[in-house]
Fold this protein.
Amino acid sequence: MRKHTLLFALSVAFALAACSMPPYNEQLSLAQVTRSKLGEPVNRIGPVYANLDPSAQENQFYFLPTRDDPENSGGFLAATTSYGLRVWYLADYSAGLESSWSIDLDNGSDTTFNFLLEAIESSMAGYYFLSLTRNLPNDLRTISSMSPASVSQYSTAISLSSAPLVAGMDAVGASVFPDSTTGTDPLYFLGYGGGASSYYECAGQTSISGFASIVTGPGTILGGLVPLGLSSAFYFHDPLHDKSYLSYPSGSGYVSCSWTWDTDNYLTAASGFQLLGGIDGPIDAVLSTGQLLSFENGRCTVYSGAGAKLYDFPLGSLKFCYERWDPVDGRFELFFSLAYWLWGRDEKSDQLYVEVYSIPTTSLSSLK
């Protein structure tokens, strides 16, 4: 038995004296298959004590480490709720959940959870992440905290004076690319409207005061592949390959497509539109290698940039967090997290444990 597996088993055994886990959790079982291939966690948090309402045991919890220093810092615990999403900041030391700041993000509708949470880099000491609340027009929001116990919130509509074409536009999707520099990350978003029935791609930089240096490409109807007025979708721009990707629900499935947009010559119209018919589910992530990830039914399926299936592997309760450039090792790395609860009994507190894993992007195929 590997050392980290033994330590994990012992910690669970001791905690079970005062807490209980479900008799069988299929998602945790699936996570263990891939977890054993990821090796030792690069960061652990917990136990984090809480006294949650019993109904909270039905919520889906996941963890996003801060992007500046995911191996030594805290991060954000998110839980789906009946009204939308609740997010806590967790420090990298054991603390009670009640002592951490939290925010609530109202859902865009009564039936769907349309939120994209993305940790972003900052050039100042603090904890930051980007929240795009979809189905709520013009709501790109940066939420920052200088202390685990307090939070300040900065919100900006997409319409900025530096990009007059963006005024009046609705957010369709947004993405953050893991730049090979530290301090900030490139931000891209797809907007619709702006006084015309067109889609616009916009590029900028993340910052603690919003989104800086916004530039806007020419309007396009995306080659006629995308219906007008789309309000909620996955959008990602890859500046290394000048490729943009869009994935949106249609009927009982999804439609995915790609095209070329050169942000160095951002006024040049997009071109090369193509449908990615080989992708069965949604696109959920785009990697620096140009590969596409889709998460469905507890598995991660990896596709080529052209939409051809390459392989898959189980995820279960593991959460894919993001891709990040490691300036020390000089490579892109993928981060995963596992957040699990030991539910209290006999008036004992609930206990949360978080583990963060990383793997070089070029080694992703080792998980299959």
